[in-house]
Amino acid sequence: MSLLRDWTVSATAGEFVGFLVPAVVGAVLFDSAAALPALMVAGVVEGSVLGWSQARVLRHRLPAMSVRRWVLGTGVAAACAYLLGMSPSTFYETWSAWPVAIPIALGVLFGVALLGSIGVAQWLELRRHLPRAGRWIVWTAGAWLAGLTLFLVVCTPLWQPGQPLWLTVAIGALGGLLMAFVTALVTGFGIRHLLGTEHPAAPVVRA
């Protein structure tokens, strides 16, 4: 398999399987006070599965990489992403009383941090092995922007009040599959670019 194809297949499967956990948690605990902490825990699961699915491909190109650090970093970053993404709605009653400029500024800040969270976490490991690894943050941010946008475009009009739980989860799973494929494909192009098309790069070890 080519690097792009192998990465896309593995990362799509990993993100889709991992996303099923927060999809179910979110549907069951919708509007519950426990939703945010539960989704953060589910995010650790999702991120860890995604990280492993990426690392199993990447370690063939970068044998010196730490799979443990990659998986752990991705899991923690995913939990942070859920915290950033859910905070505006969870704490709406608090920030809605603030001057309008503050929520707007925080929304932009949270959005940028959310999109960059996984890329930054993975960059901490990738920079040990590749020069100019910071470009990975841009690739992953773009991938998640595209994937999350597609997810919202597909799922938002399909989710309706009063739907049975199974239908809510099924719609989320459909959106999750599309999101997983898009993010995997874009990051696949990114990792291929960083590694130098189909040839493994010499590791650059930093103290």
UniProtKB/TrEMBL annotation:
<feature type="transmembrane region" description="Helical">
    <location>
        <begin position="7"/>
        <end position="30"/>
    </location>
</feature>
<protein>
    <submittedName>
        <fullName>Uncharacterized protein</fullName>
    </submittedName>
</protein>
<keyword id="KW-0812">Transmembrane</keyword>
<feature type="transmembrane region" description="Helical">
    <location>
        <begin position="97"/>
        <end position="124"/>
    </location>
</feature>
<feature type="transmembrane region" description="Helical">
    <location>
        <begin position="165"/>
        <end position="186"/>
    </location>
</feature>
<feature type="transmembrane region" description="Helical">
    <location>
        <begin position="36"/>
        <end position="55"/>
    </location>
</feature>
<feature type="transmembrane region" description="Helical">
    <location>
        <begin position="67"/>
        <end position="85"/>
    </location>
</feature>
<keyword id="KW-1133">Transmembrane helix</keyword>
<feature type="transmembrane region" description="Helical">
    <location>
        <begin position="136"/>
        <end position="159"/>
    </location>
</feature>
<keyword id="KW-0472">Membrane</keyword>
